[in-house]
Amino acid sequence: xxxxxxxxxxxxxxxxxxxxxxxxxxxxxxxxxxxxxxxxxxxxxxxxxxxxxxxxxxxxxxxxxxxxxxxxxxxxxxxxxxxxxxxxxxxxxxxxxxxxxxxxxxxxxxxxxxxxxxxxxxxxxxxxxxxxxxxxxxxxxxxxxxxxxxxxxxxxxxxx
Length: 160
Hints:
Helix content: 25-40%
Structural class: alpha/beta
CATH topology of the largest domain: 2,3-Dihydroxybiphenyl 1,2-Dioxygenase, domain 1
Strand order of the largest sheet: 1-4-3-2
Radius of gyration: 19 Å
Order of helices and strands: EHEEEEHEEEHHH
CATH superfamily of the largest domain: 2,3-Dihydroxybiphenyl 1,2-Dioxygenase, domain 1
Number of strands: 8
Number of domains: 2
Largest sheet: 4 strands, mixed
CATH architecture of the largest domain: Roll
Number of helices: 5
Shape: elongated
Distance between the termini: 50 Å
């Protein structure tokens, strides 16, 4: 069964480098198809135009579209990181190779794509039926760039 909706990513002629970087992040990243500009296109015939790839079980398409459009925070991909080691791995890989840190578990890779690296425990705490626990977890998260599971859990469990 094929995926009904496929995110399409627009790169400024560095799509192949970006897909190779994502393959370093996710072991199961694989190129499914490549397409090339035909005669009469906006680039020389035979120039790489697009790549369809699978990353973390999800299919994406990518295009070397040029500098017309840029990624922004309005669209991001959330990485579920079960452990602090996973958070550290993704955060360090994305921000350590020309990316940027932001607040609350958000970061941007060197290609401009935004990511959220979030432990499932954060979602559970933010939806906790005890509004005090949820509020304390939120307050702790708002003080962070890279999320720290122990600090968030400790804040949520602290007495009011």
